[in-house]
Each structure stands twice: as structure tokens, then as C-alpha cells.
Design a protein that fits this description.
OMPdecase_type-2; TIM Barrel; EC 4.1.1.23; 269 residues; 17% strand; two-stranded antiparallel sheet; alpha/beta; 44% helix; binds the ligand O=c1ccn([C@@H]2O[C@H](COP(=O)(O)O)[C@@H](O)[C@H]2O)c(=O)[nH]1
Length: 269
């Protein structure tokens, strides 16, 4: 991450973007779009993050394109964070872990986004599988959408839900060096919510995935403000902010390079 800069490019093939790129809102368009993004930014950015929903909306053939996209990005030497936000009771979580975190599974990238809102302990099968296979998790903590506050800022005995999630992640990462592989999702759009919820991001000792850069309005100033002394742990994530520069590969690369420079200045300066 330090060589390439702290940017993750989201692969979110919205129907509107497919249209803007002159592609059909169908499986052929989805495939062309996703592989063009990988071709353009693979090997140039720290990670890509295919958003599973935009593949699943095309049915099983769309899921096959997600598999192909994961394989292509991995072949290009780029880390893949599969943004599927899975979360369920433990026994079902075990099946999600087999799908997204098992060696040899075509849906397995390098990390998976997961939801702790069925209780952090329900994620144990995913945490165990990730640890056993050298993969990572990004646990939703303080999400970039304004509605997240209703749940994430709620307090029990004075402790916010977000702070409690961060403390659970910290426990799983305890003693890991240079850091553990249980990360958090903390939106770059959340203003002073880290302080407001009493969430100790540095103590997590894990990576922080920061969506919300670009289309949702966050930039360098917001990244620096939100993350403060935890900024070295951050991987900034932008999807539409980069993808809107397509379909031209050089323009996509230029957009990814500019977003990388902006994130680097905010987070590594
Ligand atoms: O808190 C969160 C968690 C995940 N996301 C996802 O990131 C991208 C953002 O796309 P943009 O086009 O850069 O807005 C998208 O896949 C979301 O599902 C998030 O935005 N916030």
C-alpha cells in the first residue's frame, strides 16, 4: 500500500455508468466495464473493491463476471476487497466464509466487507476462516451514509455501538505487527463522529477502509479531519469519482492517479 499509495478504486457498474460508457445494461456490458477498469488501474492502485450488488443484479451470469473480475485483478497483482457486506447468524456466516474467504473459492478476494449488526460474535466463522487463509475482513463501524448514525452512535452504558465494534476488532488484532487483518469501514464523510462516538481507531491496530471519497463529497480535507492521528492506517476508497472518467483507459488512469495523490497528501503527509 505504501508503494502504490493509499487508494482503493471501487468497481461499481451502475446502470447509468454502463450507459455513459456506451455499454448495455446487461452481462456483456458488465463484463466489458469491469475488465476495462481492472486493465486500466490493475497494478497501479493498492486495491480494487468490486461491489457485489452491481454484479448480483444481473443474476448468476453477473456473479460469474464478479468471479472473473476478482481473478483478473488478482492476476494483475492488485489486492481485491469484495464489498458484499455479509452478516448473519453464526452458522450461516460459516457458509458466507466458505464462499468469500476459502482458498479456491472463485468468489474469494483478499478481504471481505462484513456487517456486525447481528452481534460482533456472529462474525467468528468469518474471522476464523480469514485468519486461517491469510485474508482480511473490513467490519462496518461508522458508515459513510447519514442513516448509519441511528444505529452506530447509539449507546449502552455510555459506550457507543461504533466504539464497541472497534474494541472487538482491536481484541482480534491484539499483538499483531505491523497490524492485524481485521479492519474497519469508516466513511470519509462522517465529520467528527470518531470523536463523537468515542471510537479509538488507532487502538484497532488494523486497516481502515474509507469510502465516501469523490462522489459522496469527501476529499483530502475530510480524510485528514476524520482520521487525524489514525490516518496512516487508512485506505481511501472512491468508485464513481474515478469511474466517471471512463471509458478511456488513459483517462481512468489519470483519475485514479489524481485520487491517489490527493489521498497520499492527506494521509501520508
Ligand atoms: O460506509 C460505506 C460502506 C461501503 N460503501 C460502498 O462504497 C462504494 C462507494 O461508491 P462511490 O461511488 O464512491 O460513492 C459503494 O460500493 C458503497 O456501497 C460506502 O459508500 N459507504
Amino acid at each position: 500500500m505504501d508503494d502504490l499509495g493509499p487508494l482503493c478504486v471501487g468497481i461499481d457498474p451502475h446502470a447509468s455508468l454502463l450507459g455513459d460508457w456506451g455499454l448495455g445494461d446487461d452481462v456483456a456490458g458488465l463484463r466489458e466495464f469491469s475488465l476495462r477498469v481492472v486493465d486500466a488501474v490493475g497494478g497501479r492502485v493498492a486495491a480494487v473493491k468490486p461491489q457485489a450488488a452491481f454484479f448480483e443484479r444481473h443474476g448468476s451470469a453477473g456473479v460469474a463476471v464478479l468471479e472473473e473480475t476478482i481473478a483478473a485483478a488478482s492476476a494483475a497483482g492488485t489486492l481485491v476487497i469484495v464489498d458484499a457486506k455479509r452478516g448473519d447468524i453464526g452458522s450461516t456466516m460459516g457458509a458466507y466464509a466458505e464462499a468469500f474467504l476459502r482458498d479456491g473459492s472463485p468468489l474469494a478476494g483478499d478481504a471481505l466487507t462484513v456487517s456486525p449488526y447481528l452481534g460482533f460474535g456472529s462474525l467468528a466463522p468469518a474471522a476464523e476462516r480469514a485468519a486461517a487463509t491469510g485474508r482480511g475482513l473490513f467490519v462496518l463501524c461508522l458508515t459513510s451514509n447519514p442513516e448509519g448514525r441511528q444505529v452506530q452512535h447509539a449507546r449502552t452504558d455510555g459506550v457507543s455501538v461504533a466504539a464497541s465494534i472497534a474494541a472487538h476488532a482491536a481484541a482480534l488484532n491484539a499483538g499483531a505487527a505491523p497490524m492485524g487483518s481485521v479492519g474497519l469501514v469508516v466513511g470519509a464523510t462522517i465529520g467528527d463522529a470518531v470523536r463523537g462516538t468515542g471510537t479509538d481507531l488507532e487502538a484497532v491496530n488494523g486497516p481502515l477502509l474509507a469510502p465516501g471519497v469523490g462522489a459522496q463529497g469527501a476529499g483530502a480535507a475530510e480524510l485528514a479531519d476524520v482520521f487525524g492521528s489514525a490516518r496512516r492506517q487508512v485506505l481511501a476508497s472512491s468508485s464513481r469519482g474515478v469511474l466517471r472518467a471512463g471509458p478511456d483507459a488513459a483517462a481512468l488512469r489519470a483519475a485514479a492517479d489524481a485520487a491517489t495523490q490527493e489521498a497520499r497528501a492527506a494521509l501520508r503527509g
